[in-house]
Design a protein that fits this description.
The complex is a heterodimer of chains A (444) and B (291). Chain A contains 18 helices and ten strands. Chain A has 444 residues and is α/β, with parallel strands linked by helices. Chain A has an eight-stranded mixed β-sheet, sandwiched between helices. A two-stranded antiparallel ribbon of chain A has the order 7-8. Chain A is globular. Chain B is an all-alpha fold and 291 residues long. Chain B is elongated and about 115 Å long. Classes of the chains: A alpha/beta (444), B mainly alpha (291).
Chain lengths: 444, 291
């Protein structure tokens, strides 16, 4: 969830100046606040590689010569604010931090839902949009699986996706994501309890839940800081152009919220915040159970100790809920937004995260080498016709499916090509459509 | 039969009577002075078809059918009156009869349309009154539980204030009396005040009393918004205009259709991938081209 704060206490108290000077700065700060000049955000070069409805899938162009680390990283941000918080300014950009270390980065920009989108559900997002973006990334990169990185509510969606499609996720990175509501650490968790938070009334009245409505809630989390503190902070930095620009970028992002599709809001509030179904392993999407025990890939959980929107206690239980054996958490002294734009995060956290992904990356195939400044048209790995090709080279066939197939005596692609698919589907409980698609890709 | 159906039938009957009489009278008007009759006939024909369409639309219950029909009728009446007035000196046989037929039936149609307009206005007023009553009912006075919640909230704030007041005042006093320039002091005073207030707010906002109070404020606000929207939708409907809900429904249907199509395409893709024999097979178009 978005913080409404970009200001805060500044330790370097104003120097030996008279009150007239302070008053002059306050007036200038006020004038900047009332008519803020334009600032650029999200400037890392990217191209749109997939679009549907309001969504755009951005592929960031490589910043480094040479091969990109595989698998690619797909970033899933919340449905509330704009995702450019991850690329707010060049020296505080998570996207850049990953690109500079050779990763191939994709990001979902959800766009702003209209009234016609109000009936979209979590299932439409997780099993629909995210799944199709994963398709697009895998098709394009040629990788069999990807690193899924979810931030805030996007982290919760990513957890659901990884539980439903573990075979498509090589690594899972979850940052500041609400997964456990059984905590009193954050005010949002207290305020959203069903005793006094009527999600039905909100959605039935408003349809899509407007950004202003949600921002009001974030604003009163710290009314003094968010309403007075910001002006005081700006007064102190008003002579420093770069600091003012940084301040304005954050303010622009805070004010640039998007509404959330009504049904998604209703479901998220009720299932995640009020019933706590996800961490209790009782969540389902369109009748399909979101079983956290199916998450068996490497997991990195990132939390901010000063995160007042999603406190660590709301994320930490995920570590024990999944089946992954390779899992770790990183907590740093940062708030919800500081995790992505804070100087400490960029000094300590992001180099470590990039390294964490690199260690867990697949060997790069020569054909997967991206060329800087030019879009790379990826193709699925070539298969030797009739040769003993490994099952995991097939698109969408990960280690879990491979294990199930091997247990049924299907060791490689040749076995799959000659198998009775209906019998195999019954034996492995893998949907026949998937088996057919894999077999079809062999024949094609 | 409902009132509305009765009125529509009344109007249609008046319309057919008028059509029949006018048709009969006009067909009998021949002879050298038939030019005036021709003008009347032309005006009649010009609007007759349009009125027929309006009548059908009205019968179908289309939105805004009455409003549209009143407009057409009013224009037609003016034009017909103008033609009759031009032909008033005509000695052509049958002219008086046709004028009488028009006046008699037009009066009846006017009366029916006016009655309908009055009835619609009165129905609209009724709906407004009912909606207002409903809204008043939702804006009920605070219950004793609400009062208790408010009181708990105030008590929590007062307690925090009492516990910390001397500390913060002492701290501010210390800053004022201590070393430093006025500007630096003002910042430190602000920090002391904002720290105290923020902490107090955070403590208060964690209480059940605050959450309940906030929930109740929000619900009241949402109730008022909902009532206002219902009233504006009622008004728009009465005027025969599409409402926000109508547009939302259209948008939703389009969205659902798009999604259906997408999933259909996907399943076709999967099926296609599974049928290499079909893959690359010539479409009838391509076959024809080849041949």
């Amino acid at each position: 969830m978005a913080s409404t704060s970009s200001g805060g206490k500044v330790d370097n108290v104003v120097g030996p100046e008279d009150m007239a000077g302070t008053s002059d700065r306050a007036m200038r700060a006020l004038s900047i606040m009332l008519s803020p000049p334009h600032v650029d955000v999200g400037t890392t070069p990217s191209e749109v590689v997939h679009a549907e409805d309001k969504l755009r899938l951005l592929h960031y162009l490589p910043l480094k010569e040479g091969p990109a680390v595989s698998p690619p990283v797909l970033v899933v941000y919340a449905l509330i604010n704009r995702p450019y918080i991850l690329d707010l300014q060049p020296d505080r950009s998570v996207v850049r931090a990953l690109l500079e270390r050779g990763h191939d980065v994709y990001l979902i920009d959800w766009g702003s839902p209209s009234n016609g989108d109000s009936s979209l559900t979590l299932s439409d997002y997780v099993d629909g949009y995210i799944d199709r973006c994963v398709d697009a990334v895998l098709d394009r990169s040629g990788a069999p699986r990807l690193t899924l990185f979810g931030y805030c509510m996007g982290g919760t969606l990513s957890v659901m996706y990884a539980a439903l499609h573990p075979e498509r996720v090589r690594n899972l990175i979850i940052m500041a994501a609400p997964v456990d509501a059984e905590t009193d650490d954050g005010l949002l968790h207290i305020w959203s309890r069903r005793e006094w938070y009527d999600a039905d009334k909100i959605v039935d009245t408003l349809g899509n839940v407007p950004a202003e409505f949600m921002n009001l809630g974030y604003n009163i989390l710290d009314p003094v800081l968010n309403n007075v503190g910001k002006l005081v902070h700006l007064t102190e930095i008003v002579d420093d152009d770069e600091a003012v620009r940084n301040y304005l970028r954050m303010e622009k992002w805070v004010a640039d919220g998007i509404p959330m599709a009504g049904e998604t809001f209703r479901q998220f509030l009720k299932d995640i915040y009020q019933e706590n179904l996800l961490i209790r392993n009782r969540m389902s999407l369109d009748g399909r159970r979101v079983d956290l025990k199916r998450i068996d890939m490497p997991l990195l959980l990132i939390m901010g100790r000063r995160d007042h929107l999603v406190p660590p206690a709301a994320s930490r239980p995920l570590l024990d809920a999944v089946a992954s054996t390779d899992k770790e958490s990183k907590e740093i002294e940062a708030g919800h937004i500081g995790l992505s734009v804070g100087s400490r995060a960029h000094r300590e956290l992001w180099p470590a995260v990039a390294e964490w992904i690199s260690i867990r990356s697949d060997a790069l195939q020569p054909s997967e080498t991206p060329t800087p400044g030019r879009a790379r048209r990826g193709r699925p790995p070539r298969k030797e016709r009739g040769g003993a090709v490994g099952l995991e080279t097939l698109k969408g066939l990960g280690p879990s499916y491979a294990r199930r197939l091997e247990d049924a005596g299907v060791k490689d692609a040749r076995d799959l090509a000659s198998a009775d698919l209906e019998a195999l589907s019954r034996q492995t409980r893998i949907p026949i459509s998937r088996l057919k698609a894999w077999k079809g890709s062999l024949e094609g | 039969m409902t009132d509305k159906q009765g009125q529509i039938e009344g109007l249609m009957e008046a319309w057919f009577t008028l059509s029949e009489e006018m048709g009969r009278q006009l067909s009998q008007m021949t002879g050298p002075k038939a030019k005036d009759a021709g003008d009347i006939f032309g005006t009649w024909m010009e609007y007759s078809n349009e009125m027929g369409r309006e009548m059908l639309e009205l019968n179908r219950g289309g939105p805004g059918a009455y409003a549209s029909m009143r407009k057409t009728w009013s224009e037609w009446s003016d034009r017909m009156s103008e033609q009759f007035s031009k032909a008033s000196g005509s000695e052509m046989p049958g002219m008086k009869d046709i004028q009488d037929a028009w006046a008699r039936n037009a009066t009846r149609i006017n009366k029916l349309l006016t009655e309908q307009a009055t009835r619609q206005t009165s129905a609209q007023m009724d709906r407004f009154a009912k909606a207002s009553e409903k809204q008043s009912a939702t804006l009920k006075p605070m219950s004793s539980k609400d009062v208790q919640d408010m009181s708990d909230l105030t008590t929590t704030m007062a307690k925090y204030w009492a516990d910390n007041y001397s500390k913060v005042v002492g701290s501010i006093q210390g800053i004022i009396e201590g070393e430093g320039d006025a500007s630096g002091k003002s910042k430190r005073i602000y920090d002391a005040w904002s720290g105290f207030t923020s902490d107090m707010m955070k403590d208060v906002m964690r209480t059940a009393a605050f959450s309940k109070w906030m929930g109740s404020m929000r619900d009241t606000d949402l109730d008022a918004m909902l009532q206002a929207r219902r009233m504006s939708e009622e008004t728009l409907r009465a005027m025969g205009s599409p409402t926000r809900s109508d547009m939302d429904e259209v948008q939703k249907s389009l969205k659902e259709m798009t999604m259906e199509l997408r999933s259909l395409k996907q399943s076709m893709k999967v099926k296609g991938a599974n049928r290499p024999d079909v893959k690359g097979a010539d479409s009838p178009k391509r076959k024809a081209k080849k041949n």
